[in-house]
Each structure stands twice: as C-alpha cells, then as structure tokens.
Design a protein that fits this description.
This protein has helices at about 20-30, 30-40, 115-135; strands at about 10-15, 45, 50-55, 60-65, 70-80, 90-95, 100-110. The chain has about 140 residues and is of the alpha+beta class.
C-alpha cells in the first residue's frame, strides 16, 4: 500500500542558565539575540503562527505557543529531514531558580534515525553556546 512507516523518537533535556527566564526566552525567540549566540543568521516573527529559521536556514518552523518568559512551543524541521516526515515539535519551559533559570526542553516526533545527532546537537549548538553568551553579557 506504499504507506511509509514513521519511527519517532523523543528527547528531554534539562539545562540551567545563569540568566533570567525572560533573558533565556528572548535568546531563543529574538532573531538578533539568536544570531548573536549562534554566530549564524536567524529569523523569527515572534508571534503565534510566525515563522522562524536558525543556523542559516538549517532548521526552521513555526511558533505554536508563546508565553513570554515562561514557554515556547514550535514546530521544527531541518534541511536534512527525511522526505514525507511531518515536522517535529519542540517545547521550552522556563522556571526561575536561585541564580538563574532551569529550562526543560522536549522534542517529540523527530525521525528516530536522526535522534542521536539532535540529542548531541542541542547541547553543542544551543545550550553550550547560550551559556557562553550569557556569561559574556554579565
């Protein structure tokens, strides 16, 4: 019947940043700040239904839910996405903690065979760079 079998994986990561929930939120949603910490072009229309892209168009999607300083939910795909696969969903939840922000990141419905790359990719290309960015701002 030619039906593709989609195999999905899930990633859940918790990261602590020495910055306020609003600063962490803005680093992700504000294209100027996003470009500043990645060192690559990012675009974003920061409203629900608005489109975004990062890393010179490598990853892209749409904003599904935005609660300033608290939560971001987006669809997310990369230029290496397997044909026919629906977009995955990423969710960032920000909670103020002593000395900074605890962020819980969840990615669901990503192609299973790419999950290991993304699992490492978020750490290398996002969390580590964001930590450096916030450290420099202080």
């Amino acid at each position: 019947d030619g039906m593709a079998i989609f195999e999905f994986g899930k990633i859940k990561q918790t990261v602590f940043f020495k910055a306020s929930p609003l600063e962490v939120y803005l680093a992700i949603i504000d294209p100027k700040r996003h470009s500043a910490f990645t060192g690559s072009k990012a675009t974003c229309t920061p409203k629900v239904g608005g489109k975004f892209s990062a890393w010179d168009g490598y990853c892209f999607g749409e904003n599904l839910e935005l609660i300033e300083g608290k939560k971001i939910v987006q669809t997310w795909k990369t230029s290496e996405w397997p044909d026919g696969y629906p977009a995955s969903k990423i969710e960032f939840v920000f909670k103020a903690e002593k000395g900074g922000t605890k962020m819980t990141f969840t990615q669901t419905d990503a192609p299973k065979e790419q999950m290991q790359d993304y699992e490492q990719g978020w750490k290398d290309n996002y969390w580590d760079l964001m930590k450096t960015y916030f450290a420099k701002k202080k």
